[in-house]
Amino acid sequence: MTVIAAATPVLPAVHEFLARTASLLIDGEWVQAASGRTFGTVDPATGNTLTEVAHGEAVDIDSAVRAARKAFDTGPWPSMKPNERERLLWRVGDVLSERAEEFGQLESLDNGKSAAIATAVDVAWSADVFRYYAGWATKIEGSTINVSMPFAPGGRFHAYTLREPVGVCGLIVPWNFPLLMAAWKLAPALAAGNTVILKPAEQTPLTALLLGEVFQEAGFPPGVVNIVTGFGDAGAALSGHHDVDKIAFTGSTEVGKKIVDAAKGNLKKVSLELGGKSANVVFADADFDSAVAGSVTAWMFNHGQCCVAGTRLLVDERIFDDFTAAVAETASKVKIGPGLDPTTELGPLISQDQFDKVDRYLREGLADGARALTGGKRWGDSGFFIEPTVFVDVKPEFSIVREEIFGPVVAAMPFDGESGAVAAANDSIYGLAAGIWTKDISKAHRTAQQLKAGSVWINQYNGFDTAMPFGGYKQSGWGRELGQSAIDLYTQIKAVNVAL
Ligand code: NAP
Ligand code: MG
Asked: Can you give the residue ranges of the Aldehyde dehydrogenase domain (predicted)?
């Protein structure tokens, strides 16, 4: 049953997509799960089922891996010229741009985020990612090395490296940026000449499946891109599969550790983009208004369901009360509603489970003695909405300070001086991102050098770019996605030495 609660009309193309039975993409064909089973995917603004998708399991993962292996070893993919891969990837980027609104609405319905933001950010950036890596396909190079060869005095040699694809890659993505996280992995993996199996999150399989249709239409050979929708057991089967050469994962730190265990069997390569509890540091000399606006975006963007969310707001004690009051006031004015309402600024959380988890943290924070300057409870009485919440009077040991909540909740703490800010910011098992707000350029760079985080944003937050590497220190992950770094993730180096 397709039930859509929407303020703006849903495009006919989205209705048509939802009416198609969504199946698995294996070896260039759309097929049902071997078991014939399906599962419903839900609109978080209403709790209603949008459509049924195939329930892929280990046996389907195995079929997809065999297809990807064949396509990598003997299909047309390995013999295709880099500029042919470039043209295919560029085509995917163009189609995403042409059909941005359709992808944006579908993402909004499946995930709950604003359709306008999904179109302008998730889809537009995904298109950019495909074009950026389309360009890389023709620029992957080895090097020549002037060797000394001390064990072969008098000999003459020609030594060089080849940068080759890793092979069959399993890409496991979460529900917070379903299309974008898939794009971050698919585009560099394919540019480098790998074949892939994509496992979307159970909550948000739809844009991945629509993207699968785009890959088909663009002319990717069978088996190069396979998509298996399903649950954690499908992800586990992919991570443990002995014919998979690499897993690229974005999601929770807990599942990241399971993937490391599962990967041991054949020592497949693993890259991980995991959780965070990022610090956003506001010095007293910051531009007050832009720091307030930026600090709210830092923890509220995507309803707080961002791995980089700046959920530990560290504020110079001299401005703490004024600053947190202004943050709370801004947050309390945010317009809450369903994603297809163009005026919505804060949508629902992804699922009942996530709603229950965030609600548990709110109650735990209050029981520990934190005070909510605004929010602290659910919004409305249907859908998975939580009021934006600003906690003060928090202690470093509170769970709302230490653990990733993944909802629109921030814990604000005062600090004393630069060293106090750095110590508080680094007091976390995570190290994904950090923000710094100050007009003092030296202090900004000095602080950036001392923060243990993979990304540092100064006088802004979420300062991402496709060309900039992204990933985590500490338990926030292994490796760097985006930029040239992602090409490193999806290639391996062969050293060749010729005796002349
Ligand atoms: P998750 O469990 O880590 O899920 C991420 C992906 O891994 C999904 O595709 C998931 O499939 C799959 N998966 C689950 N168990 C697996 C296993 N044993 N082996 C291989 N793959 C497996 O994340 P979640 O449950 O959706 O969210 C839980 C928490 O993770 C959130 O509250 C948040 O704190 C964090 N999170 C972080 C990020 C991030 O970007 N860093 C993103 C999302 C969530 P299923 O969807 O079928 O379970
Ligand atoms: Mg859904």
From this structure: 30-496
